[in-house]
Design a protein that fits this description.
Layout (H helix, E strand, L loop, with lengths): L2 H19 L2 H8 L1 E3 L12 E7 L7 E5 L8 E6 H4 L8 E5 L8 E8 L6 E4 L4 E3 L4 E6 L6 E4 L4 E9 L3 E7 L8 E3 L1 E7 L4 E9 L2 E11 L9 E3 L4 E6 L10 E9 L6 E6 L16 E3 L4 E8 L8 E11 L6 E10 L1
């Protein structure tokens, strides 16, 4: 074997490795071609599209639309033999009629996948344009609901997500100054509600408009004869600090509160107005429930390094609700000696 023969054998070996290294999906994609008709303008609800591919005998599992053509793109399945249980499609063609709301407005490639995988084996060379009527989810963190109930002064977090639009219009009755402007197509917003209010959201495009409403009711619990009894009358801290001490300090303590009634529930809120900087604790200010004979813990964390002068500092943590000794003040004191 001469040196030229050795080179030919080596080249053949390298080419064989290259052919072996080609992924099956790439080989499939090179042999599978998609044809879609030319269309001026967009496909709208009720319009049909004829999708064909060659070779027509090649079995197809999924026919999808995808906006970028990438594998991790969200896919809208037009037909799936795997889901429907029909025989694998080997006709080489498929006709699809666009439906309301299913596919959001936008531009999409047509993609095909082969049996046994959801990976896209081929996609169209051009995109089609789809226009659809708007769709809207409007609710709270608990999901899509028509109404919720809170206590006067409590907050509610509204969530929305609209498709086939770029923006939506907010309104309410009675008017809420924080909910009366143009909003992005999706988002969240927390609003304080003092009186029963219905919040509306309207989204529209050239094909139509959709409006949803969410009623937020406010209720004040009936006055109770039950009392909240704290385990101690105050939380106190005493510190002796050097004048050059700079590091942040944090000290915590807590007390228990008790519902004196064996039959009545207590509804209460923690009021944190004018909370000073030396109080580190973050409190839940929503309406809370203390069941009959129930107990709860309330803590306080202080940082004496935030005070520059010696002295005694006091902040009253307040509980407000339907209990008979409302409002209840629990002093938190901090004495600093330098």
């Amino acid at each position: 074997m001469n040196k030229y023969s050795i080179k030919i054998v080596s080249l053949f070996f390298v080419l064989s490795l290259v052919l072996i290294a080609i992924p099956a999906s790439a080989a499939n994609e090179s042999s599978l071609k998609i044809r879609i008709p030319k269309k001026t303008g967009a496909y709208m609800p009720g319009d049909s599209i004829n999708i064909s591919w060659s070779p027509s005998s090649k079995p197809i599992q999924n026919i999808v639309l995808l906006s970028t053509g990438k594998e991790d793109d969200e896919k809208y399945v037009l037909k799936s033999d795997k889901v429907n249980g029909d025989p694998i499609n080997t006709s080489g063609k498929f006709n699809y009629t666009f439906e309301n709301h299913f596919i959001p407005s936008g531009s999409y490639y047509v993609g095909l996948s082969l049996p046994g995988t959801d990976a896209i084996a081929a996609r169209s060379s051009k995109k089609i344009k789809v226009e659809n009527r708007p769709s809207l989810f409007f609710g709270t963190q608990d999901g899509e609901v028509n109404s919720v109930a809170v206590s006067p002064g409590d907050s509610v977090t509204l969530e929305w997500r609209a498709e086939s639009v770029k923006k939506c219009k907010a309104s309410s009755f009675p008017a809420n100054s924080k909910w009366k402007k143009t909003l992005a197509a999706s988002g969240t917003k927390t609003l304080r509600v003092l009186v029963p209010t219905t919040f509306y959201l309207s989204c529209k495009n050239n094909l139509g408009e959709i409006t949803a409403g969410l009623e937020v009711n406010t209720h004040t619990p009936e006055r109770s004869t039950a009392r909240i009894v704290p385990s101690t009358t105050f939380i106190g801290y005493n510190f002796s600090l050097g004048t050059t001490q700079q590091q942040a300090l944090s000290y915590s303590d807590s007390i228990s509160i008790f519902n004196s009634s064996a039959i009545q529930q207590i509804y209460y809120r923690i009021v944190t107005e004018d909370k000073p900087d030396w109080i580190n604790t973050g409190y839940n200010t929503s309406q809370l429930v203390l069941p009959p004979n129930g107990t709860a813990s309330i803590g306080a964390s202080v940082d004496p390094s935030r005070i520059s002068r010696s002295g005694t500092y006091v902040w009253n943590l307040k509980l407000d609700g339907n209990f008979s000794n409302s409002p209840l003040s629990i002093p938190i004191t901090m004495t600093i000696t330098r």
